[in-house]
Structures are given as C-alpha cells and as structure tokens.
Design brief:
mainly alpha; transmembrane; Glycerol uptake facilitator protein; transmembrane helix; transport
Amino acid sequence: MATTRRYEFGTNESSHPDSIRATIAEFISTCIFVFVGEGSVLALNQIYKEPGSSASELVVIAVAHAFALFAAIAASAHVSGGHVNPAVTFGALLGGRISVLKAIYYWIAQILGSIVAALLLRLVTNNMRPEGFSLSVGVGAVHGLILEIGLTFGLMYTVYATAMDPKRGTVSTIAPLAIGLVVGANILAGGPFDGACMNPARAFGPALVGWRWQNHWIFWVGPLLGAALAAVLYEFVVIPIEPPPHQPLPAEEY
C-alpha cells in the first residue's frame, strides 16, 4: 500500500515486474477465496442439506469465508496488498493508495480468479451448478442494496484501519485476521437476507458459471458504494492531515 496519498494513472507500472507479480498474487488469492467460499455453500446446500440446520450452516459458511480470506490476504499482502476484492481496490483507488492502471490490473485478476475458481468447483463436484448470491424471500432489491452498502462499509473501514492507514503501526500484523473476522461476522449478520456478498468478484464467477443473474447488480453496486463511502471517510476525515514542515524565519525577522 502507498504510504502517502497519490493520484496518478501509473503508466510507469504497466510492465513493471512488481505490478505483474502483484496482479498474479491477486488472481491466485481471489481464486483461493472464491473456491473455498463457494465450495462451502455448495457442500452444505447440495450435499449435507438437512432440515432445520440453517443456523449451523450459516456458521460453517461464515467460518469458511473468514478462514479462506485470512489465508488469501496473508499470502498476498506483501506482494499486492491483499485486496482480493474489486470493492476494496476501488476504495484504495479513491483514497489515492493505488494507481488507476494497477487498479485495472487487479480488477481483471480478481474477476478471472473468481471465474477459474467457479469452473474448478463445477469440475470437481461433477457439474454442480454454483449458487452465487440471491435475495431471500421478503427481501427487496432496495433492502439488499442498502445491506450490501452497510456490510461493505464495515469491511472497507476495517481494511483501511488495519492495512492502509499510514499510522497503523503494529496493528498491521493482525490485518488479515481482522479483515477475515469482519467478513465472517458480516455473513452471520447479513447472510440470511442476501448471502452477505461484500465482494463483486465473489459474486461474479459463480453467477457466470452457474448462470444465475437475478438481482446480480446489487452485488456490484452495493459493495462498490459501501467501499467508496468508507474509503473517503477514512482517508479525508479519520487520517489526520500532516501539517507542512516548519520553515525557520530568517534571523532578521526575529
């Protein structure tokens, strides 16, 4: 992550080895996260489905996502910053913590990683159709959108506080764990209503491979808006503005 706010296109990063390594890291980490997250949903809903066990299923899904995201971020944080989420990359872009070109590279890698994970799941499960995300009965599109905004706001705020804040100090060592935990907690809170996506890449791969597009736009617009709100708030309100360096007055002006 950048230590100072900067807004630039990043032309010099287009073919830099560090950018390529970071892009590959985002692809692999997102693939790992989506494979485990969607795999846990498929296993519970299509293999171990038992009446009256929805609460325990939700806990298992939340824990699977939390552990997988923890591992994915920890494995890529030192290479790419461990975004593993187009909404997080969007927030970092708005906050001046990443260049435009690198953000585009990350988005492509994250989406491709999600698609590959969903394809692998369909292959290893003997053609089970990925489920992705959908609204529960009685939950309207507006309700789902607001929920996704709120859940992703909490996620992005945690990312900023633990991984992007220039003055985060030693708390950065627990950033992967904190981010994984907030995702798991958000799934427990919002999972029964819309699955608690918070990640457009997590939604896109399973939706494409499983061909499930109903209300899919919610899982893009909501996370992007939530991440944008958190990033702008943290970057321009929470992070203190550094005063300009003091310039000593000439001796004759004392």
